[in-house]
Amino acid sequence: MDTQDQEEQAPLFRKWSTWYALVIGFLLLMILFFYFLTKHFA
User: Fold this and answer.
1) What is the pTM of this model?
2) Running DSSP on this structure, what letter comes out for residue 7?
3) Number of domains in the chain
4) For residue 4, is it within any domain?
5) 33 domain-assigned
6) What does the pLDDT read at residue 30?
7) What residue numbers bound the domain in which 21 lies?
8) pLDDT digit string (tens) for 1-42?
């Protein structure tokens, strides 16, 4: 394997960890949104 295959750059960001943080943050926002939506209409 080439080193270029092993170190593939993430699309749009420099590191894959940025994508992971973005996805986890989005999931947390969705959880909070649905929690407050449930509390409001309960």
Assistant:
1) 0.71
2) T
3) 1
4) no
5) yes
6) 98
7) 12-41
8) 555 556 788 898 889 999 999 999 999 999 999 999 999 999
